[in-house]
Records
---
Amino acid sequence: MATAASDVLKPDYGSGRRHLIFTDEHEDLRESMKRWVLDELAPHAEEWEETVWPDSVLHRMAELGYVGLCFPEEYGGQGGDYFYSLVRAECLSYAGSGGLGMGLAVHTDMVLPPIELLGTEEQKRRYLVPGIKGEKIACLGITEPGAGSDVAGIRTTARRDGDEYVINGSKTFITNGARADFILLVTKTDPDAGHDGVTLFLVDLKGDDGEPVPGFTVARTLEKLGMHASDTAELAFEDVRVPAANILGEEGKGFYHISWELQGERLVAAAGSVAGAERLFEKTLEYAKGREAFGRPIGRFQAIRHKFAEMATKIEAAKQLTYATAWRFNNGEYPVREITATKLFTSRVACEVADECIQIHGGYGYMKEYGIERAFRDVRLNRIGAGTDEIMLEVIGRSYGL
Ligand SMILES: Cc1cc2nc3c(=O)[nH]c(=O)nc-3n(C[C@H](O)[C@H](O)[C@H](O)COP(=O)(O)OP(=O)(O)OC[C@H]3O[C@@H](n4cnc5c(N)ncnc54)[C@H](O)[C@@H]3O)c2cc1C
């Protein structure tokens, strides 16, 4: 059937809502999860800045099947592909609480995937299954007071003693650290072996009575610039005994195992950065259409209009990069350079967008009641957590043999 030239040439600003990596099933999830986030989480965003998000959020999320999206059915999951993780991260942006999204992602996208990939059957039954049910909350312990970017420079040791290991050391900046039931802990089993002396353990932090296991203490909870809805703690391990069966993956291969974990973490962080930027863009666009100065909506000034054009272009580029890289990751490639570039670019875009959105809101952007200042504080972490900008640049630069 012939189409009129006027129809063909008309720009369609509403097109392309669904990216080619997503199917109807992904979009169904997006619809239902977004509704849940808007109805049950977003109304509490302000309150949880003071109290941190309650454990009941994870329980509910598990009940709705949103924790197990990408895990095999035999462990209680839905057996979906990696793209479901992106949809989940994107939907959580509607809560308007970076701290909530981060705390949940530590559980769903940082700790549970390595257990699925590397865990023994027994470990999957003890940690993955209750994790998917939301009965056990996880945290991830890489960073220490003396080593963050330099993972191989950590000092927490695990010394073999018969069928057990004895763990000593401390971890800091640990998200969910004050509440977690267990930790995926990065240790040194051979302090002289550099990268090859690193070993991962699954360590219970609470006994059956809910009290901390002997030798483990939450040394302190930490105050921070943003992400207030998330708890961040310093953890101390003093002669904590763990069965040798709790090694995750291979002894001495922990550096490579955790490097794999970081790839998924960075991609999900990228999706969160892009979605967060989109939410800020939408909110600010609405504001710019309503707020008047000098007799017209501020969005009608070219200087402001161009800010939106710049932001939209960067967000679109960041989104396409994220989806293209995720496609490769989902299809079995291990595109570390591209994931690293994606993480670097998207978190920078998110920070730039947050800054511009404050600017466009003027004084109101600086006030708490608009939620923009919170996003501005929350998003700053994205250029530090999961690997700093400088480390991302190092990884990319070195990948060219430099
Ligand atoms: C709110 C929050 C939550 C977090 N949650 C967790 C968590 O759950 N689990 C966890 O393990 N960690 C967590 N982290 C830690 C986070 O991953 C680290 O802060 C990050 O990796 C940087 O490490 P660092 O803070 O020790 O900085 P450092 O490594 O000391 O770096 C300091 C500065 O030096 C730069 N630098 C370091 N090495 C190089 C180099 N080779 N070349 C150029 N520049 C370099 C860095 O880019 C940075 O600018 C969290 C951090 C925060 C703030």
---
Amino acid sequence: MKQVTRNLFITLIIVLLGGMSCTEVVNDLEPYMEPVISSDSIMPIDALLIEEQDSLAEEIQDSLSLIPKKCIYLTIDDAPLNGTARIDSIVSKAKVKTNIFMVGNCIDGSGKFRKYYNLLMENSYIEIYNHSYSHANNKYATFYKDPEKVLADFEKNQLDFSIPHKIARLPGRNIWQIGEKTRNYKQSGATSAELLVKSGYKVFGWDVEWRYNAKDYTPEQTIEELINEIETLYEKSRTFSKNHVVLLMHDQMFAKKNDMNDLETLILELKEKGFSFEYLSSYPE
Ligand SMILES: [Zn+2]
């Protein structure tokens, strides 16, 4: 028995040693394998064509992006007043981005205007900006004598009415200051603009105004005349920023529909001229 056990033990040792050496040989000399080409990695001609079309479309897209966009900014001052409800409904139907410069004391003075303020806040086509709380009580020269008071007036409006962007327009003044860039700076109000900018605001004037008669708020230019003014400014690059036209209008102009104040037609004609409607919050620096 002892001899049988000894033989079995020796056989086991030989098998184990043999096994180990086989393993070592396999590790040292890996057999050559033909590369496997899966049918998935061969691109059919159709797919090649699609890829070519895609890259052509990308090239066209790139060239189109080099053509400057014609941007128009509809800006409406002094809201909420009697024109707000119509403005709210027209821009919603036309689906165009619209910029409203709001005056807070109108809201505090009237339940109707507070409702209009809520309409504006809820309208996804409208962005609200700051046109001061008091509108200088329409005494501009006095107002601008004290820039600190002007800043406080704007800050009150900003906080009381949760205005999300620090974008301001001075009452009664076409003054621009965006960073270092300024326009129409030699008039009272310039120091206030500077202080607002130091406090984080961008101060916007306008490139063109749809003017109105002070007695009945009827527009002075026909839509055709206004479009011509806008096109000329655009073509001759007479705007504060090239390719960007800021149009000023006033809330009260749209209180009642008349022959002159057809905002829907103005929007349609601007669309036909290739203008894209933008928010001042995306105006270039
Ligand atoms: Zn105003």
